[in-house]
């Protein structure tokens, strides 16, 4: 048996009463099983909710290690009381799940997810918190977008830069802008925002004062870049977009969240 710190990023049903959990730890991502967790009187049921930051006691199993105890460190209760914030948490968890290989150690990715959940729970601006999380997570997994040197030729970028190429991996200088016909337009304010957030601690992002248009363009550019890397949009984005378009009054979202327990992804 051993103990580990973890964030629960995905879970699904198994058998008649078990839950399979995907957890992110400072040592990497792994799948574990909580036997009998779906039973009404299970001691684990209330301690293995999605997005919970917890300390787990695990027993080494043949296929999956077995959760024998969970001691939550933070349940992020304020986050769970708002649909848009719970949607943002789903997105943050799904993104790291897609970008991190199982059992691939990445302490920085763990710290970034934990920081994003804390910021969302504390009431920080949702979109800017996610943009900082995306930029720093991409850096942590080796996909840092080029925002200081041209992604095509490597020349130092200036304020004349106005194109972003997901395929090339970042911003293009004016001389290379025509090399990628699918490169996206990028205003100077957006260029400066992305550069600033890339080099600053992610926790400051949620307090920045940025125009709505600049925030929207930054989201669009990073979404296009992630779509190129992942070759698809994440499922959680559809829910997050829907919540924004059809806002609901704040309400408590239980342990199943907005998408339900069956969180296995294609």
Task: Describe, in plain words, how this protein is organized in 3D.
- The strands form two sheets. The protein has a five-stranded mixed beta barrel with strand order 1-2-3-5-4. Strands 7-6-8 form a three-stranded antiparallel beta sheet, with no helix packed on it.
- It has 266 residues and is α+β, with helices and mostly antiparallel strands.
- The chain has six helices and eight strands.
- The protein starts with a strand and ends in a 21-residue tail after the last helix.
- Helix 1 (83-99) packs antiparallel against helix 2, helix 1 (83-99) runs antiparallel to helix 6 (235-245) and helix 3 packs parallel to helix 5.
- It has two domains: 2-74, Beta Barrel (OB fold (Dihydrolipoamide Acetyltransferase, E2P)), CATH 2.40.50.140; 79-245, de novo design (two linked rop proteins), CATH 1.20.1440.
Topology summary:
Blueprint: E1 2-14, E2 18-25, E3 28-34, E4 53-59, E5 65-74, H1 83-99, H2 107-122, H3 126-140, E6 163-165, E7 170-172, E8 184-185, H4 188-199, H5 212-230, H6 235-245
Parallel strand pairs: 3-5
Antiparallel strand pairs: 1-2, 1-4, 2-3, 4-5, 6-7, 6-8
Helix pairs in contact: 1-2, 1-3, 1-6, 2-3, 3-5, 4-5
């Amino acid at each position: 048996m051993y103990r580990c710190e973890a964030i629960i990023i995905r879970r699904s049903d198994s058998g008649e009463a078990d839950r399979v959990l995907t957890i992110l730890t400072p040592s990497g991502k792994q799948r574990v099983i909580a036997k009998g967790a779906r039973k009404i009187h299970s001691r684990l049921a209330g301690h293995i909710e999605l997005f919970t930051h917890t300390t787990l006691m695990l027993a080494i199993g043949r296929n999956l290690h077995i959760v024998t105890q969970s001691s939550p460190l933070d349940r992020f209760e304020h986050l769970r009381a708002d649909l848009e914030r719970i949607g943002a948490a789903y997105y943050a968890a799904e993104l790291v799940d897609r970008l991190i290989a199982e059992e691939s150690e990445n302490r920085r990715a763990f710290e970034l997810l934990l920081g994003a959940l804390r910021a969302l729970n504390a009431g920080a601006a949702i979109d800017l918190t996610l943009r900082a999380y995306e930029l720093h997570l991409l850096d942590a997994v080796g996909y840092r977008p080029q925002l200081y040197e041209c992604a095509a030729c490597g020349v130092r970028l200036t304020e004349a830069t106005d194109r972003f190429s997901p395929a090339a991996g970042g911003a293009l200088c004016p001389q290379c802008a025509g090399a990628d016909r699918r490169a996206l337009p990028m205003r100077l304010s957006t260029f400066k925002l992305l550069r600033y957030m890339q080099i600053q601690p992610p926790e400051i992002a949620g307090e920045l004062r940025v125009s709505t248009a600049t925030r929207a363009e930054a989201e669009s550019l990073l979404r296009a870049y992630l779509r190129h890397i992942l070759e698809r949009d994440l499922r959680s984005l559809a829910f997050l977009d829907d919540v924004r378009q059809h806002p609901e009054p704040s309400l408590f979202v239980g342990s199943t969240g907005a998408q339900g327990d069956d969180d296995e992804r294609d």
